[in-house]
Amino acid sequence: MVYKLENIDQVESLSGQTYCKNYYFNPIQDGNTPPNWIISSQEVQGLCNNAFLWIKDLEQIEWVPPIYPEDENIYSGDTTGYVGS
Asked: Which end of the chain has fewer beta carbons closer than 10 Å to its terminal beta carbon, N or C?
């Protein structure tokens, strides 16, 4: 299970913040259509930063991994930069 963030404000409020000492929140998007912003259950279980206790009240949903087409070439072949979508 993962925790679903309800809006971009929640994503931005967690990005780059610590949930405990040197451990940082890492909101990501799942494979739903449209994708949900989520954080892992490990982030919530390891929470010791009282400023973010509200995340324990977020809805828990099943993890749906993103699916990338096998023929999708996310690299241009140019090693000087990343070309992704």
From this structure: C
